[in-house]
Fold:
Amino acid sequence: MADDDELHGEIDALARDIERAILEFDSALERHAMIRQTAREPVFRSESPEFDDVQNLFF
Structure:
């Protein structure tokens, strides 16, 4: 019986580790997607208020 409890405890710990790894991987994929999206789009679009602010700074 003690062996079963120990085995269940190890399986539960393994399941938590796997779940944590999946969540970390999912988070990394989301960050990667955001970075790729940012790289494809200009940071300051001409129609954005930030564009006017930046343009006023430099011109």
User: Anything to note?
Assistant: Residues 2-40 form the longest helix (39 residues). The chain has a mean pLDDT of 81. The chain has two helices and no strands. The helical segments are 2-40, 49-58.
